[in-house]
Write a structure and sequence with these properties.
Length: about 280
């Protein structure tokens, strides 16, 4: 039996239609959902990612504000920019594009974002709230993965889940989200011993290590759920997906799996942030 393809591109497209309807309804209340994107420097990949996010805003009828700062920007200058956006009532979500130039204290700047506008799920407070099961906008890539899992009705309760990678905006929040859904979670990283053996025992694998095809096909046990959160110039992810249709029970393709869900989740969170104003 062929594995279930977890089609993030399809789900994101369906979600965009629903978000567009919600945005239109919010506008009837005089609320114009708006995402502010902050790009520091001129990294080509970052410029591309920000452009994709702004284009998605446009498709669903949402406003976006592009804040572009020079490579020489200091931590204090970036903090002032974030503070201005925090105070701007017309802005419902703030995205600080990662990475920022090395002279900037990125964590300090992330944590300066108003928790109510942290639609990218990058603040320590947001992470803590999410981990404790409180309301928070989870980091967009892991939150998008959870949406995929739930859309395809995959029952992960009790499964042995292995997250390969421990970044603060992917690996760590991914582990907490899976734990909150009652999976049993192991986090592997660059200093993990016997990593192949640990992965081979996984019912659910999330590749989030940032190394092309790091997780080999032969490390994946039969009928495991395989989630590849990586994307590299070689048009591959962190997992060697060859023959995954015959090995896994369900898997995300690269491209077209996790990637589209990341941006879609960011836009969804921004709409949800704006929607809260109706209740106030």
């Amino acid at each position: 039996m062929s594995a279930l393809l977890l089609d993030g591109k399809k789900l994101a497209s369906t979600s965009e239609i629903e978000i567009a309807k919600e945005v239109s309804e919010l506008k009837s209340y005089g609320i114009n959902p708006t995402l502010a994107t902050i790009l520091v420097g001129n990294d080509p990949a970052s410029e591309t990612y920000v452009r994709m996010k702004r284009n998605t805003c446009k498709r669903v009828g949402m406003e976006s504000i592009a804040v572009e700062l020079p490579e020489s920007t200091t931590t204090d200058e970036l903090l002032n920019t974030i503070n201005d956006l925090n105070k701007d009532n017309s802005v419902h979500g703030i995205l600080l594009q990662h990475p920022v130039p090395s002279q900037i204290d990125e964590r300090k700047c992330f944590d300066a974002i108003d928790i109510n506008k942290d639609v990218d799920g990058v603040t320590c407070l947001g992470f803590g709230n999410m981990a404790m099961g409180l309301n928070a906008y989870g980091s967009c890539t892991p939150a998008g993965i959870i949406r995929l899992i739930q859309y395809y009705k995959l029952d992960i309760e009790g499964l042995n889940a292995v997250v390969v990678g421990r970044s603060p905006i992917l690996g760590k929040p991914m582990a907490m989200m899976l734990l909150n859904l009652n999976a049993t979670v192991t986090i592997c990283h660059s200093r993990t011993t016997n990593i192949e053996k640990i992965i081979k025992n996984a019912d659910l694998i999330v590749g989030a290590v940032g190394i092309p095809r790091f997780i080999k096909t032969e490390w994946v046990k039969q009928d495991a759920i395989v989630i590849d959160a990586g994307f590299h110039p070689e048009k591959c992810g962190d997992i060697d997906l060859d023959d995954m249709t015959n090995i896994s029970s369900a898997y995300t393709p690269v491209p077209g799996g996790v990637g589209p869900m990341t941006i879609n989740t960011l836009i969804l969170h921004t709409m949800q942030s704006a929607k809260k104003l109706i209740k106030d």
